[in-house]
């Protein structure tokens, strides 16, 4: 899902700086959130009813909510003024 992008180290007055790993996302945010929600629901289905299962289901619900918010933010109705 993610492709690593490695940048060469740069120096500041001869000192070697630590390289920051950058990852380029290959799947859209909505798809990643939906996959995460489905994975968490599958894990929750394997658990016995209780607090752990409730926590997992809450995480799945939060991922679904985030996917809906992403849809809303990226909708064509929300264009900046020209």
Give me some keywords for this one:
single chain; 82 residues; two-stranded antiparallel ribbon; alpha+beta; two-stranded antiparallel sheet
Describe it:
By secondary structure, the chain is an alpha+beta fold. It has a domain at 29-41 and 54-74. Helix content is 50%, strand content 15%. The chain has two helices and four strands, in the order ββββαα. The chain has helices at 29-46, 51-73, and strands spanning 2-5, 11-12, 15-16, 22-25. The strands form two sheets. It has a two-stranded antiparallel ribbon. A two-stranded antiparallel ribbon has the order 2-3. Strand 2 (11-12) and strand 3 (15-16) form a beta hairpin. The radius of gyration is 20 Å and the shape is flat. It starts with a strand and ends in a 9-residue tail after the last helix.
The end-to-end distance, rounded to whole angstroms, is 35 Å
Residues in helices, as a percent range: 40-55%
The order of strands across the largest sheet is 1-4
Order of helices and strands: EEEEHH
Give average pLDDT, whole number: 84
Write the layout of secondary structure elements.
Layout: E1 2-5, E2 11-12, E3 15-16, E4 22-25, H1 29-46, H2 51-73
Antiparallel strand pairs: 1-4, 2-3
Helix pairs in contact: 1-2
